[in-house]
Amino acid sequence: MATTKLDDIDRKILTELQADGRMTNVELAKRVGISAPPCLRRVRTLEEAGYIRGYHADVDARELGFEVQVFAMVGLQSQAQADLNAFEGACRGWSLVRECHMLNGEVDFILKCVAPDLSSFQNFLTGELLTTPNVASVKTSLVIRAAKDDPGVPFDVLEDRLSRQA
Question: What's the Cα-to-Cα distance from 20 to each of 49, 55, 58, 133, rounded to whole Å?
Fold first, then answer.
């Protein structure tokens, strides 16, 4: 388990940055109970170790004119590694696809897509996704509203698990 390398302070740093990645190092240090210089060293170490992959603004897609969000469940004809890699590469090139996850079971991939309107998504669906080599089927579900969209991981669950192991 990778988290055994992290101590309480590291997990507190990750919890705080996950909630607010824009806070200053001084504020972060104050929240986790250490001084600023070691806090900054720890953040840099967490970044270098890959625990922190980046910092992003949580933009409101609808406020920016992206009114349509769709989940597309994609079935492929072949699941050979080269074919999976080719499909993933195509997904990386499609700007409307914001997330691409390979699944097990009936569906090979689920894609989270955003578009300004339904016709833009339909153009992507019929002109790009359905014409991609190896795509056998696509089922789509239009998002009506999001009830929850929390970033990152639930550190409270991790802390509970670690306390039971101690």
Answer: 20, 10, 10, 41
The length of the chain is: 166
Measure the CA angle with vertex 51, ends 46 and 56; round to 5°: 100
Q: For 28-80, what is each residue's pLDDT tens digit?
A: 999 999 999 999 999 999 999 999 999 999 899 999 999 999 999 999 999 99
Q: Is residue 14 part of a domain?
A: yes
Domain that includes residue 137, residue range: 68-142
**Same domain, yes or no: 46 and 103:** no
What pTM was estimated for this model as a whole?
A: 0.85
Residue 70 CB burial class (10 angstroms; 0-12, 13-18, ≥19): buried
Q: What average pLDDT does range 3-22 have in this prediction? A: 89
Same domain, 53 and 82: no
